[in-house]
Amino acid sequence: MDQREPRRPPEYILEVFADPTCIKDVVRSVLHTIFFHRYFPCHRPGALDVLDLTLPVVTNSELETLIDTRVGQLARQLSSDTSPQGSIRGQLAVQFYEKRRKKGGGLGWFGGGRAEEEVCWEIWRLEVTLAIPKTETERTKVLRAVASTLRKTALKIVNTVNRDKDHIPPITTNDTNPFPYQITLNPRLEGWGKGIGIF
Asked: H/E element holding 26?
């Protein structure tokens, strides 16, 4: 492979299904499960009980604040939409980066510029569907489906992180968090606009 051509990071798609009563807890638990396996600083693990499942939580106040903010934004967006089909969709993306030294020192024309750049090495895309049950019977069916989907999603995350490790870059810094991350609401991960920072 040509060294000048950047390799596309692996992208994992997770389908998340919930109703308005549990959307925040379900999405929050999926995000924490991803970070539990990809957040490398030392942290004390916690647990989150959602729909008879106990899932891991990263107890880091900065990360928890970011997760809660993005989950709240997604929940507000989904609750403000109306759909005659009884379901509404939204997306979140989690991107992990490594800091790399720019070729040529990154000094630019007049000595400005950054000597490091952030290169994405992994993307998790959550495709969230909010179901709006109309009756109590529908609600019971939806909650059963939500629990089943959450269980499958958690297992998919665990299987993926155990299987796909070769693309994780080596830790080459003494920074507390060697791999910066982003959580983006309704991301546009493709296209020319991302390359120049518009999207």
From this structure: helix 23-38
**Token pair recorded at residue 116:** 């490091």
Residue 19 CA to residue 26 CA, distance in Å, equals 9
Residues 66-95 pLDDT 10s: 999 999 999 999 888 665 565 689 999 999
φ, ψ at 174 (rounded to 5°): -95, 5
> pTM for this structure?
0.82
| Cβ proximity of 76 and 186 under 8 Å | no
**3-state secondary structure at position 103:** helix
Query: What are the pLDDT digits (tens) for 120-140?
Result: 999 999 999 999 888 999 999
CA quadruple 8, 194, 170, 183: dihedral sign: negative
- The Cα 22–Cα 12 span in angstroms is 23
